[in-house]
Amino acid sequence: MIHFWKWVLLMIFVFGCSSQDKEEIVVIARVGDKTIHMNEFKNRYSEYLNRTGAKDNLLFRNQFLEGEVDRIVLLATADSLGLGENPEIKDKKDRAKLSGILDEFFYREVFQTYQASDSLLRNAFQKSKTEIHARHLYTKSLEKANQLKAQINAGASFEELAKTIFEDSTLAATGGDLGYFSLGDMEPAFEDAAFALKDGEISEPIRTRYGYSIIQTLDRWVEPIITEQDYQLHKEDMNAVLRSRNVGKRRQEMTDSLAAELNLSISENDLNLLFTNRPDIFKGEIIGIENEAVQLISTLGIWNSFEIYKQMQSLSNSQKQKIKSKENLRDALSGLLVRKKIIELANEKDWFIQPKFQDKLERVQEDITIQYTLSYFLNDIKNQSQSDYMILLDDLKANIPIHIDDEIVRRMVISS
To answer: ∠ at Cα 257 (254, 262), nearest 5°?
Structure first.
């Protein structure tokens, strides 16, 4: 009778579980003492399919699972080597976590929430129905761009100047003619300038991502019939285009707004001390200034000397190299305050505590460990061949028992 009730209780547990609960206990692979459960595999694999646009098939499924197994093998190897105690790795993992939180915050709170006004949407839709014919002269420096513009004003032609500045033979031979383009085909700054010009008009030097362009709009073609129905059908497409183009600007606006609200205050003497001693502070060598009563005051509270030193040391190498003046340092300190505030705001969001995001953060940090583990075995990893990588993985796998339930993998249902 006792055995019967044990059986009944077991059946109640099994059949009372939701499908998701069942997937949490179904193991599809064992790697040493680690396991891969069905639900975590399906979540990660589905995200991979959505991100890449690939369609589920057994080959992709097995390849993705093999990649998950490889991750566990490399992380287990890192543990056996004690790489997790490496201060450099710890520092990079902390940076990766911070970056992951900041990126997620801006993606959810700035990118996803963007909604253009109806007037902006209509203007973008009009541009999408217009083709601009333009040419340009390009140079990397503003000084050279101003010289080119002066030559044009003095009567020089695009044709003769293009021959002297373009390495591209086609652009050199056609006077920098770019042909026809429409909304989304060119860099936003270039595109905006070209659309704003009248036919035949020549711009002042326009700053682009790669340098400076002097643009001449030659002519344009506008689709003759544009209907309200067509606009309504493409409103979301236009919003997506404008969102991508304006997200950087909106991110900067939010950052500037937060910086203003934080109300940073630091004395000129303290700022001067920090700037003068920044090389030693960056290296953690604060002997001689450890007792200085430096203070930075903001709405987040008061940072004392050691907190300021710690925060300055947390700057990336590229950020440290940009600090050439006391004003640069003030901006960097302001940025550190904003970063701390955003982390606080992120912690208050529902998405922050969701398992999916926490898993994402964990994997970002694992990627750092995996990179160092590979570097431990493969010198100059960027120049290693795929076969070198596979040989290493095979050697490492030989020391770890691995079992994959092929039947469960084959039969599982992946939602689209």
So the answer is: 125
